[in-house]
Design brief:
Elements lengths: L1 E10 L2 E11 L3 E6 L6 H8 L7 E6 L10 H4 E4 L11 H11 L5 H9 L15 H13 L5 E5 L7 H16 L3 E6 L2 H7 L2 E6 L2 E7 H8 L3 E5 L3 H10 L3 E5 L2 E5 L3 H11 L5 E5 L3 H9 L16 H4 L4
Parallel strand pairs: 3-7, 3-8, 5-6, 6-7
Antiparallel strand pairs: 1-2, 1-4, 8-9, 10-12, 10-13, 11-12
Bound molecules: adenosine-5'-triphosphate.
Length: 314
């Protein structure tokens, strides 16, 4: 378990992390979500003891990172996939890491196999694609078979196949009971990858909850209804006090339970071709909850989703 209490970090005038308190539990993928510059990397560096907090603290199973006896056996991290000597082979890079951290050499071939790099293990890591470099970085994080894994923006710049591979791999690590903490500014990606979220904006905590709750809290749930007798249904629903919006060949109803709509349709003898709950997207939830915590608002419209939140590039 990772536990941050009142964690803060100041760089000169910039308060990069502002009094963050959150926990990350084992057996789940927890997404660390926030726009560029929100303070995600700084928080991860503090978890790993690479930066000292200006205030508060963060513990890993009750201990500071620096107090851990054999840190790589407890925590594995992927912060920068290109952190590898370009002329070294993938296997040589991992052997060097294993040796310098007193980890068994046989683990190198195990982790190469786990991430699917066995066939290219003797090739220069400098010639690897971004996807292969990410896999090598994940292999390095797994060398000590740690219970806790941190990944900073692991899908950035990857193609759809690479993104899918990372997503499935994270689920697998969580299913093995590990604590998986993964940062991203890609909201839709987090909706598919993480079951829990820690959401920050401008260094401050905005929410810690399940992904489902985050979306439900911040967005209205509606029901989509399709029927060959739409006009009749529209007026019957309207009489119940619910709000009805026409959308092509369907109605979108808010303020009325899905079961009540079904029963009303049955009572009126109206056949239904669709009766489906609609949930807002994570993007909508994020904008709703972050409000002015989003650093880079789109200039043109109050309601526009800030472009930087939704694009893969940094
Ligand atoms: N070493 C540093 N010195 C000065 N300012 C820094 C330093 N590291 C980060 N910052 C500032 O702290 C704030 C948070 O940065 P951080 O990289 O942690 O955010 P992030 O959420 O990881 O964003 P990104 O996704 O763009 O990496 C930013 O304003 C950044 O400019």
């Amino acid at each position: 378990m990772i536990e941050a209490v009142g964690l803060s970090k100041r760089y000169g005038k910039t308060l990069a992390v502002d009094n963050l308190t959150f926990t990350v539990q084992p057996g789940k993928v927890t997404g660390f979500l926030g726009p560029n510059g929100a303070g995600k990397s700084t928080t991860m560096r503090m978890i790993l003891g690479l930066d000292s907090p200006s205030g508060g603290h963060v513990d890993i199973d009750g201990q500071r990172y620096r107090q851990l006896h054999q840190p790589l056996r407890k925590v594995g991290a992927l912060l920068d996939a290109k952190w590898v000597h370009p002329n070294r082979s993938a296997r040589a890079h991992l052997r060097w890491l294993a040796k310098s951290n007193k980890l068994p050499a046989k683990r190198v071939d195990e982790v190469l196999d786990l991430v699917g790099l066995t066939d290219v293990a003797n090739r220069r890591a400098g010639g690897f694609s971004l996807g292969m470099s990410q896999r090598l970085g994940i292999a390095a994080a797994l060398l000590g078979d740690p219970e806790i894994l941190l990944f900073d923006e692991p899908v950035n710049g990857l193609d759809p196949e690479g993104i899918l591979w990372i997503r499935r791999f994270m689920h697998r690590l969580a299913d093995e009971g590990r604590t998986v903490f993964v940062s991203s500014h890609l909201l839709s990606e987090m909706a598919l990858t993480a079951s829990e979220l820690v959401v920050i904006g401008r260094g401050r905590l905005i929410a810690q909850c399940s992904t489902e709750e985050f979306v439900a809290q911040a967005t209205e749930s509606t029901v989509r209804v399709r029927s060959p007798q739409l006009a009749l249904l529209r007026s019957a629903i309207g009489q119940q006090g619910a709000t009805v919006r026409d959308e092509g060949d369907s109605l979108v109803v808010s303020g009325m339970d899905i079961a009540d709509i079904g029963e009303l349709a049955a009572a009126k003898g109206v056949p239904l071709h669709e009766l489906s709950p609609q949930r807002g997207s994570l993007e909508e939830a994020f904008i709703q909850l972050t409000g002015d915590s989003v650093e880079y608002h789109a200039a043109s419209s109050d309601n526009a989703v800030p472009a930087d939140l939704l694009t893969a590039g940094k």
